[in-house]
C-alpha cells in the first residue's frame, strides 16, 4: 500500500508541473505578440500566412539605387580605371617620343644613347607594371606592361633599321624574348589586351627588323611555327579563343610576305614552303575542332572561321607554290583535301565526336574541294560531265543517308551545270552520235533530274515536295526533248541522210515515249508513266501545229499514221491494265 500511495503522489506531482509549464508557455506567447504589435502593425491588423510569398517586385527607390550602382560600377569604372589608363599610356608615349625627337634634333643624345633610353624605358614600364599588379592595381599594371612591350618593340626596330647598331639575328632574338615576356606577363596578369599586343609584335617581328633577305627562310618559317604553338597554348590555357584567329591571320600574313620576298631575292624554295604550309595546316585544322571534340563545347564562329580560311589558305598558297613546277598535280591536291575532310567528318560521326555543325562544315569543305578539283584535273570539255557525275553521287548519297545538306548540295550543283548540258557547243564537223562530250553532259543532266524526281516522288505532308517533284519532271522532259532533237539532227548530218529533220525528230520523240510507257508499266513506275504521257502530248502538239506545215505529203501520212496508232495502242494498254486490276 505504501508503494501505491507513493506512486499516486508522484503522478499528482507530475500533473502539477505540466500545468505550471503550460501556463508559462501561454504567458510567453502573449508577451511576444504584444512586442510584435508595438514594433510594427496596428492592433487588429491581419498578417500574411506563412505560405504567402513576399513580393519580388522592387520599389521605385530600390530600382533607382540599383541603376545608380550599375552605372557607377559599370560605365564609370570602365572609363575611370580602364580607358583612361590606356589613353594615358598612349599620351605618355607620345610625350616621350616628342622629348626624344627634340633631344635628337639638338644633338643631346647619340644613336646608342637613344636606343639605350628606349630599352631602359621599356624595362622600367614592365617592372612598374609588375609591381602595381602585386599591389592589386590590375588595369593600371596592364597599361604599364603594354606600354613597356611597345617601347621595346620600337626600340629594337630603330636599333636594327635606322641606326644599324645590332644585326638582324640579334634583333630577331630580342623580339622573340620580348614576345615571350609579353605572353608570360599576359598570363600572370590575366590580361587579354597584353596577350594580343605581344602576339601582334611577335608576328610583326620579321617586318620590324626588315628580315626579308637578311634572315634565311627556314629560320623565319620555324619561328612562325613556334610562335603559333605559344600563342595557341596561351589561348587554350586562358580560354582566349580570339587569339586563335589572330594567330591564323598573323601566320598567313607572315608566310605570304616572307616567302614571296625570299623568292624574289633568292629564288623559290618550293619544298621548304610546302613543308611548313602543311605544318600550319595541320595545326590550325586540328584547332578548328579541338575544343568541340576534346571538351564537348559547341562549334563557334571562331572555329568555323579558322576551319574555312585554313583550308582556303592552304590550297591557295600551295597552288601558288607548286603550280609552276607541278601544275598537272593540282587537281590531285584538291582531291586529297576532299578525301581528308570527308574522312575526318565520317570518323567524327562514327565515333560520335563533335556536334552536327562541325560535321556539316567538314563535309561542306570536302565537297567544295571536290568541285574545285574537277576543272583543275580535267580537260575543259569534260568539266561539265565530271560536275554532273559529282551531282548525281551527292544526290544519291544524300537521299540514302538522309542528309539534307548533301542532297541540297547535289541539286544545287545539278542546277548550276544545267545550262552547259543544254547548250550545244560548236563542232567543226558533226561528232560521232552519242559518243561525244556534249551527249554525255546531256545524258548525265537528264539522269540527274530523273533521279531527283524519283527521290521527291513518295508522298508526304510537305507542301514543297510536290512542287519539287513536278518541277524536276518538267525539267527532265525539256532537257530530253532538247537533246534528242540535237542528237537526231547531228545523226542526219554525220551520216549525210536525206530525211526531213522535223519528221525524224518527231519520230524519235514518239519512240522515246513508247519506251518510257512500257518501262513505266512493266516496273509500275508511275512517275515514268507521267513523263511518257507528257511526252506524247508535246509530240502530238508539235506534229499538228509545226511539222505538218513543212513536211512533204509522204512524211505527213507516215508520221500521222505512226502517232495515231501509238496513241490508240497506249490507250488500249491502259484499259487492259485497268481491267486486270479490277479483276484482282
From TrEMBL:
Transmembrane portions of the chain: 83-100, 112-131, 143-160, 166-185, 192-211, 217-236, 243-264, 276-293, 300-320, 326-348, 357-376, 382-399, 406-428, 434-455, 467-486, 501-520, 527-548, 554-574
Annotated source species: hydrocarbon metagenome
Region feature Disordered, mapped onto this chain: 32-63
Regions annotated as coiled coil: 4-31
Compositionally biased tracts (Low complexity): 52-61
PANTHER family: BLL2549 PROTEIN
UniProt keyword Transmembrane helix present: yes
Keywords, ordered alphabetically: Coiled coil, Membrane, Transmembrane, Transmembrane helix
Protein name: DUF2339 domain-containing protein
Keyword Secreted: no
